[in-house]
Amino acid sequence: MRPEFHAVMFDLDGTLIDSLADLANATNHALAKLGCPTHPIPAYRYLVGDGAASLCARALPADKQHLRDDALQLMRAHYDAHRYDETRPYPGIPELVTTLAARGLTLAVFSNKPDHFTKQVVAHYFPATPFQAVRGHLAPVPLKPDPAGAWEIARELKIPPAQWLYLGDTNTDMQTARAAGMHAGGVLWGFRDRAELEANGAQTIIAQPAEILELVGTKK
Questions:
Q1: One domain for residues 210 and 119
Q2: Which of 11, 13, 22, 173 is catalytic?
Q3: Is 180 among the domain residues?
C-alpha cells in the first residue's frame, strides 16, 4: 500500500539545485589561497553534503587540517559572492514544485547549508513557489543526519513525520529521513548514485522529477 503524503521536504544542493560547480570553485579558491592542491569539479560530488566545515576538511590534505577554519572563511566569502554564477535548478524541478503546491501539498526545504544562505538561494531560484518552511543549519541544532531539524519543521507545520516524503540525493539525506520517521526518497539526478542511496535506507528511488507527481498524488 502506497503511503499517503501530505507534505514534501526537499534537500537543497543536489536535489533542487545543481550547485556543484559553485561549491567546488569556492572551495578550490580557498585551497589555492592557502597553497593547497585543488580538486576537479566532479570530485566534489563526494566531498559535499555534510556542511561547509566538513567540505573544507575533506578537501584539505591530511597534513593541512589545521587550516580548516581559514579555508572555511575563505570558501564562504567566495561562495557568498559567486553562489549564482553556475548554479541552476535541475531540469523539471521548477515545474515539479509548482505542481505540488497547486495540488495542495505542503512544501519545505531543509539543508545543511547555513540558514541565511539557504533562504537566500531558495528565494533567488524559486521566488514564486510557496515553500511553507525553508531551513538551513542553525546552531545549536545539529547538522543532518541528525533528525532534529526535520522534526522541528514537522512540528512547526503540524504534519506528523509519517506523512512526509523526504527527497534527497546523498547518504546523509537518506539517514536523516529514516531517523526522522519520514519516507526516504532518493533522487538520481544529484551528487550520488543509486547504490549509496539504497545502502543508506532509501525506500523509493526516483530517476526523474516527474515521477514524484505519480508518487504523491493529490492531497485530499
A1: yes
A2: 11
A3: yes
What's the CA angle centered on 72, arms 67 and 73, to 5 degrees? 105
Whichever domain contains 33, its CATH number is: 1.10.150
Could you tell me the residue range of the domain that residue 114 belongs to?
7-18+88-216
How far apart, in whole angstroms, are the C-alpha atoms of residue 81 and residue 27? 13
Cβ atoms of 99 and 211 closer than 8 Å: no
Asked about 11 being catalytic, the answer comes back as yes
* Co-location of 62 and 94 in the same domain: no
Residue 94 sits in the same domain as residue 197? yes
Q: Could you tell me if 138 and 62 lie in one domain?
A: no
Whether the pTM exceeds 0.90: the reply is: yes
Q: Express each pLDDT in 115-157 by its tens digit.
A: 999 999 999 999 988 899 999 999 999 999 999 999 999 999 9
What is the mean pLDDT of the segment spanning 196-203?
Answer: 98
Of 111, 105, 92, which is closest to residue 132 (Cα–Cα)? Answer: 105
2 domain residue, yes or no: no
